[in-house]
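Thread: quick sanity check before group meeting

JM: Hey all, I'm pulling together slides for Thursday and realized we never actually wrote out the predicted structure for the chain we discussed last week. Dropping the sequence here so it's in one place. If anyone has concerns about the input, flag it before I start.
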Amino acid sequence: VTRVAEAHDATPTQVVLAALVRAPFPVVPVVGCRTPDQVASSFAGLGLHLDSAEVDLLLAAASLETAEGS
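JM (edit): ok, ran it. Output follows.
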């Protein structure tokens, strides 16, 4: 996540949200923000363009983390 975020000059949260909205399955992200600035920063991720290879990489990483954590 960090490498993709750095490549796009974005935060990890923005990258994760951008990947989730492009996922090939329904996802409803729950974003925990404490301040208006955090809300604005998080939602900026919705306008972030990730290519399909980046989305696949992030979704695969999430699948691996989930499988290893079970």
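AS: nice. The chain has a mean pLDDT of 87. The radius of gyration is 12 Å.
JM: adding both to the slides.
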